[in-house]
Specification:
Keywords: Signal. The chain has 159 residues and is mainly beta. The chain is 6% helix and 50% strand. Strands 6-7-4-10-11 form a five-stranded antiparallel beta sheet, with no helix packed on it. Strands 1-3-8-5 form a four-stranded antiparallel beta sheet, with no helix packed on it. Strands 2-12-9 form a three-stranded mixed beta sheet, with no helix packed on it.
Length: 159
């Protein structure tokens, strides 16, 4: 029986190992999202997580994580955009945590508070780069259904 099932098992796409805790969130609201890192890179401990924020996200704040430092890069917006608390002329482009290390045998979460775009029905990809000891890395940046998919967030209706 295994000889018939093995080709099916091998053909299944790999499950993402950096996943988002929310599949869908309401439009134009402040929401908490967590990126779960389930393992290191081929046995090496995780030492960095870089999350690339999609164009529609104009506000994001990372949660402090003891033992990790945070770096935020920004991008200029074409025109001032409302955040719900005023106007902004720039938006976060990447948020990176470095430190740890997070051993391969453990998992952890990296948390953001974001303002979701006012775009019901949209799907946003959040590409993630996982850096590990010894220079190893894994890029979770591919389309859904691939071996290394980026986490996807669907934007629902406004509350």
């Amino acid at each position: 029986m295994w000889k018939y099932l093995l080709p099916l098992i091998v053909a299944l796409p790999a499950q993402a190992h950096v996943v988002m805790d929310a599949a869908e969130l309401p439009a134009a609201t402040y929401q908490r999202i967590a990126f779960r890192v389930g393992h290191g890179c081929a046995g090496a401990a995780t030492t960095g997580i870089e999350i690339r924020l999609p164009e529609g996200v104009v506000q994001a704040r990372p949660m402090v994580k003891p033992g990790w430092t945070i770096a935020i890069t920004t991008r200029a917006l074409e025109r001032p955009t409302s955040t719900g608390h005023g106007l902004t002329r720039e938006a976060p482009a990447t948020i990176t945590w470095q430190g740890g290390p997070l051993p391969d045998a453990h998992y952890d979460e990296f948390v953001l508070m974001i303002r979701t775009p006012d775009a019901p029905g949209a799907s946003l990809a959040f590409p993630v780069v996982q850096l590990c000891e010894g220079g190893a890395r894994h890029d979770w940046v591919e389309p859904a259904g691939s071996r290394s998919p980026a986490p996807i967030l669907r934007i629902g209706n406004r509350p």
